[in-house]
Amino acid sequence: MRSLKQQILILLLGSLVLLAACFITILGWYMKDKAEAAAFIKAQTDLATCEEIIEKTYPGSWAVKNGELYKGSEKINLNNNLVDHLSSLTGDTVTIFLGDTRVATTVRGSNDERAIGTKVSASVAQTVLQDGQNFVGKANVIGQWYETGYMPLRAENGLIVGMFYVGISHSYDQKTINGSLITFAVLGFFLTLFVSLIAWFFLQKFVINPLHNITLGTRDVATGHLTEKIKVSGAKEIEELEEAFNQMVEKIQSLTDDLNRRTDDFDNNLVVKDDNPEVILEKGEEFYEPPSFLTDLSGPTSTMSQPPTDSLGEEDLPKGLNQATLDHIVQFIQTTQRPLSAEEVAESVKLTRVTVRRYLEYLEQQGLVKSEQKYGRVGRPVKLFIPI
User: Fold this and answer.
1) Cα dist from 160 to 75, 104, 119, 128, 241, whole Å
2) Where in the numbering of this chain does the HAMP domain appear (predicted)?
3) Contact of 163 with 150, CB cutoff 8 Å
4) Which of 38, 175, 190, 263 lies most in the core, judged by the most C-beta atoms within 10 Å?
């Protein structure tokens, strides 16, 4: 199962990628429309520019002589120098028509030769040659689509004898648009990466780390090692979780203090009858049955030496400690002869951990045991008591 951090990052990255894809798609349509509009404007401008250049280069009127097109005294048929010069100035494909047939052109066919002798499309011929109007728009030129501009060529008597054409390749426009979109996509990728790094930093600092601290605090509660509240900083919901956790800690500490007081009252009311390790409650009727190892050690076959607490009288013990209980704990520790925690001793002698810890700390003060801290991976260190 993925962690919360991974799920949030995947959601964030998915949203950014989707947003970038939508943005690039919309931008592509927008650029396509703008590019076509700009190409049509360029075609109109280039028509007027080329017309002026031709008029200055070849003065005179358009005419047809012996089935060939002339401008003034200059023959235009197969005049590749003229169309190549105009093409280099405008960046367009350039063609001059005699009627509807190409007689000088930079447009090349599938065999990569100039498309001399090929004809214009019927729709263009209708608009330019018959209606006598300029044509600006998309047109099929030798099997390819161009943003084009056509204008009629008129003889001195006003008759239309041919056409002049400039065209911008549609594939060239598409290549320019694709290049721009790829640039935007690369920029979008690095922007998405940058935003993701920032999001990961804030997510780690204000969500993941606070939740991790609360988790550690919860484990401390589960292992009984919680001694203080937690303090985290983060989003409002995280702070509310912290407040609820600390309220729970206060309640647990209150219950623990109340339990300790009741345990101390219980221990203070313990009495021992003669030398028998059986213990009865002063105000009760049921017997406390000591662990079996105590009765075994009290028998005549035991080789265990008498605990070194015989020299301590009842009056020498601190308030709240009982001699019989102390003897039971000492016998268990000397029998075990290994480092023990207060929890282990308490479980074995059937007393509470808080009560046993008080006895162990007293034995440590008397030099009968020593303590050391054992550190684990999770939670607070455990205090171990070692017999000397």
Assistant:
1) 17, 17, 16, 9, 87
2) 205-257
3) yes
4) 263
pLDDT in tens, 105-125: 999 988 889 999 999 999 999
The model's pLDDT over 354-379, given as tens digits with 9 standing for 90+, comes to: 889 999 999 999 989 999 888 766 55
Closest by alpha carbon to 385, among 353, 344, 339, 354? 339
Instruction: Enter the tokens of residue 29.
Output: 């349509």
222: amino acid identity, one letter = A
**Going from the N-terminus, what domains does the chain have, and what CATH number goes with each?**
4-177 (3.30.450.20), 269-387 (1.10.10.10)
For 278-362, strand residue ranges (E) read 279-281, 287-288, 340-341
Choose among 59, 48, 71, 62: nearest CA to 159. Answer: 62
Greatest C-alpha distance within the chain: 149
Taking the mean position of all CA atoms in its chain, how far away is CA 353?
A: 47
